[in-house]
Each structure stands twice: as structure tokens, then as C-alpha cells.
Amino acid sequence: MDSATKNFLGAILFFLLTSSTFILIDANPIGVCIRNCAQCKKMFGPYFEGQLCADACVKFKGKIIPDCEDIASIAPFLNKFE
């Protein structure tokens, strides 16, 4: 095999491996849920219970995904900060 063919096959292999990794990461609803919890924690700071949110993600297996812009989806994780 010449070097051009090896480079081409290497590039194809790299593409297949990285694309399948991204698909697996995005397809995990628990991971999406936990990332959304982290985003909401960054947005709301001490008013948002990030650990409680992450625990709910694991407990419900990612079936409820918090949306930081939807008050109904994050209401259980908000608290009054005094």
C-alpha cells in the first residue's frame, strides 16, 4: 500500500470513530439531562439545586430533561436564596 492510500484509510477510520462517539454521547438522555442541569446551575447560581437536578436525571433515567428557559421543567430545582 502506498502512503496516499494509508492516509486516506486513516482519515476514513478517524472519521468513523469520531462520528460514532459523538452519536453515542448525544444519544444518552441521562448525559443530556445532566449537561442541562449544569447549564441551569451556571445560569441561576445559588437559586438552582444542581445536585438535586442531576439526581433526578439518574433516578428517572433522563426521561425529564430540564430546560433552563422553561420554568415548569426546572421549578422542582429552584429555591429561595436568603
What is the fold's blueprint, element by element?
Blueprint: H1 3-27, H2 29-44, H3 50-59, H4 71-74
Helix pairs in contact: 2-3
Describe this structure in words.
One of its GO terms (molecular function) is ecdysis-triggering hormone activity. Keywords: Signal. This is Eclosion domain containing protein. It comes from Asbolus verrucosus. By secondary structure, the chain is mainly α. It has one domain. 67% of the residues lie in helices and 0% in strands. Helix 2 runs antiparallel to helix 3. The protein is elongated, with a radius of gyration of 20 Å. The chain starts with a helix and ends in an 8-residue tail after the last helix. The model has no long low-confidence stretch (mean pLDDT 83).
Highlighted features:
82 residues; mainly alpha; elongated; Eclosion domain containing protein
Summed up:
The chain is an all-alpha fold and 82 residues long. It has helices spanning 3-27, 29-44, 50-59, 71-74.
Mean pLDDT: 83
Helix content: 55-70%
Oligomer type: single chain
Note the gap between the termini.
70 Å
As a percent range, the share of strand residues is under 5%
The class by helix and strand makeup works out as mainly alpha
Order of helices and strands: HHHH
Number of separate helices: 4
Q: Radius of gyration, Cα only, in angstroms?
A: 20 Å
The coarse silhouette is elongated
